[in-house]
Specification:
Layout lengths: L6 E4 L2 E4 L7 H14 L14
Antiparallel strand pairs: 1-2
């Protein structure tokens, strides 16, 4: 669902982003989003459908 970005490449140059670890915002976002997906948290927009 969410993947941290460690390196950006542009015109044959590489730029390291952060320290290579997932940050606190990405962790919170991941927990919230997967909580909605698995029904552990409310879906405020009604996007989740059981099939």
């Amino acid at each position: 669902v969410i993947s941290p970005v460690g390196v950006l490449s542009y015109k044959e140059e590489e730029y390291q982003v952060g320290n290579g670890e997932t940050g606190p915002f990405a962790n919170r976002f991941y927990e919230h989003l997967t909580g909605i997906q698995y029904g552990k948290e409310a879906d405020p927009f009604g996007w989740v459908e059981s099939i």
